[in-house]
Design a protein that fits this description.
- With about 140 residues, the protein is mostly helical.
- The chain has a single domain (about 5-140), classed as Arc Repressor Mutant, subunit A, CATH 1.10.10.
- It is built from five helices and four strands; from the N terminus they run αααββαββα.
- The chain has helices at about 5-10, 40-55, 60-65, 85-95, 120-140; strands at about 70, 80, 100-105, 115-120.
- The strands form two sheets. The chain has a two-stranded antiparallel sheet with strand order 1-2.
- α2 (about 40-55) crosses α4 and α3 (about 60-65) crosses α4.
- The radius of gyration is 16 Å and the shape is globular.
């Protein structure tokens, strides 16, 4: 997946079903408006899947920090604020229903993993296939 990292995010992302609130929700309290792109939920799902793929386990709190942004506070100094936990939680739950990620139990055989979600074998295989298709599609364009 290393070669097709960011090309995958704009590639096959329509494999996640989105709910009705996706059109009106803001992704952070630092934003004034909801996302303008109609397929932002798919792009976020692909970004979350890639983020979990590259790490052992990732929780929703870490995803909130990664997807956070800088809040404009007018004449006061700007500060980093986390993204909406609901959005990242719903994305992770959608990936879980597809079998791409799974919950990590804290009492498992690997004590270094402290909860969160990790990629499944089937999920890693699917993401590798999507990344390969993205790389092959770009090579065909050249």
């Amino acid at each position: 997946m290393a070669n097709g990292d960011w090309r995958m995010i704009n590639g096959e992302t329509n494999w996640v079903s989105k709910t009705g609130w996706v059109d009106t929700v803001k992704t952070s309290h630092s934003n004034e408006l909801p996302p303008q792109s109609a397929d932002w939920f798919y792009v976020r799902a692909a970004a979350v899947a890639r983020h979990i793929y590259l790490r052992k386990s990732v929780g929703v709190g870490r995803l909130r920090k990664v997807h956070g942004s800088t809040k404009n506070r007018g004449s006061r100094p700007s500060h980093h604020v986390n993204a909406s936990g609901s959005v990242d939680r719903k994305v992770v739950q959608a990936l879980e229903t597809l079998g791409i990620v799974e919950k990590v139990d804290e009492d498992e055989e690997a004590p270094s993993l402290k909860g969160g979600r990790r990629i499944t074998q089937a999920g890693a295989r699917d993401l590798d296939r999507i990344a390969l298709n993205a790389v092959e599609g770009e090579e065909d364009d050249e």
